[in-house]
Amino acid sequence: MSPDVAQGTLQPHQPSAPGSKEVWKKGGRMFSILLAVHLALLACTLVSSGAFERIAVHDYDVFFLLTVMMLVVIIWIIFYLVSTSRCPDAILCKDSHAGPIWLRGGLILFAIFSLVMDVFKIGYYSSFYSCLSAIKIMYPIVQAIFVVVQTYFLWISAKDCVHVHLNVTRCGLMLTLTTNLAVWMSAVTDESVHKAHSKLKKNTTEELFSSTEACNCNSQICQIFKNGYYWLYPFNIEYSLFASAMVYVMWKNVGRFIDHHSHHIQHLKFKLFRRTFFVGIVLGLIILVSGLGVLIVYEVQVNSSTEPSKKSQALTMYYIFNIVCLGLMSLVCIGGSVIYRFDKRDMDRHKNPTRTLDVALLMGAALGQYAISYYSIVAIVASTPRDAISALNLTYALLMIAQHTFQNIFIIEGLHRQPPKEDHKHSSHQKELYGLTFVNVNAVSLRMPDSSSASAPSTTPGSEGTHPSDLVRSLTAPKKINWRRKFLREISMFLLLCNIILWIMPAFGARPHFDNDTELNFYGDSMWPAIVDICLPFGIFYRMHAVASLLEVCIMS
């Protein structure tokens, strides 16, 4: 066996004619991409058409397509698990960067809430099954099975670099990704229509589709099921996006050979909890708890009160909290970027599909909030009269743009830094010194008189001119934490908790875009809801993806 094989670099498995292999690899990828594009466009067409009553596309048409897609994916996942388990050479290596434990843990958390949502849906549709199509009851059942099978699949296979059935695997993974995106589009559309009905209550929104027009949900248990699954939609939406990201990384790793000389962040995952955090977590928790209080008061005053003054007070409170939060986050991100200027860690230039996807998702998802903010700025500046709420709204929009920009810079630079090497160097040097001290300290101290200690040559590297007792004191002294690393961790934890509350507020009902009439009056009842319904889901996803990225930055610091 050659040394390369013994070291795990897998060089002998590389083909002798890489050109033809690369062409075929690109051809297989292109076919799977085309398959995903056509399925995604078909699903998008049906979902968007089914959202309007006057278009002859009904919700059961959408449910039928999604049910078929999920059943096909379930069959393919079973085939994948069986075929890879029976073939010993199916998975020659694994990508240590793909599917980190915190990402898979978040996936399981969202999967649990998605299953609860499916239970509520089954109970809701079963309340009046006599006037509904059977596919409406079958859909949540199949979705629950799909969530269980896919979660198990991603938990055990997220790191796989498959080397058998390459084209079938690529097409299967792209079908899985497209199915998750189609489920995400359906959930976002259903939730947006529900929010539009509850917030606007205008005649124009009566044209929007409601899944239970022909049936009446009069019983109390039916209303509980209905409200319950709508409140759980944000978790299902995030589950679909998390799964899509993990499946995409698996697709990129099909047929890939891993460079084992790159660093492995998984080895650092437990070092995060060896240091005590105070400032970042305390300030972040204060923001988080305050935000929950603001959200509760905002929802109560806006939805239950008919007095305009109560609504204005709720909007003022909401804007002030977000202005303070976004301002602090922007300053902290700028401070973190300045600290990076003094960071001595090298940039990581290894190929890493997970990091590439993280950066692309951060930049792409931020465009949704950018669009809403710029539309708001134009409407506020061009509208008259200008009151205090308009000034707060303008400040809020400007700070939202600044905070996304500074946070993206901080996260992307942190993701491209190599993990610190001080711990490794210190531990290896410490082992050498411990070996010298434990074995030779008595002999050295007896052989070296004080008068000749200065002129005696040192025989051990790293101990020149140092008395053994000094070595012992240096080894037993507590190791100081690098101030740059400590500040970066504090900043990351603070931003992480702030992003959580900024995800919770819009995901669970806060819609100042509709409660504040400035943009609605400027753009109209048709254009502004369309802008918000298209762009806001990307802004919500940005916050949750930023949480995962900040956790990785914190661990790598």
What does this entry look like structurally?
Helix 2 (18-50) packs parallel to helix 6. It is globular, with a radius of gyration of 28 Å. It has 557 residues and is an all-alpha fold. The model is unreliable at 1-23, 202-213, 261-274, 423-466 and 474-479 (pLDDT under 50). Helices cover 73% and strands 1% of the residues.
What about the largest sheet? 2 strands, antiparallel
What is the averaged pLDDT score? Answer: 76
SS-based structural class?
mainly alpha
Taking pLDDT < 50 over at least 5 consecutive residues as the criterion, the unreliable ranges are 1-23, 202-213, 261-274, 423-466, 474-479
Overall 3D form: globular
Question: Beta-strand level of the residues, as a percent range?
Answer: under 5%
Percent helix range: over 70%
Helix count from the secondary structure assignment? 17
The count of β-strands is: 2
Report Rg.
28 Å
N-to-C order of helices and strands = HHHEHHEHHHHHHHHHHHH
Strand order of the largest sheet: 1-2
Q: N- to C-terminal separation? A: 39 Å
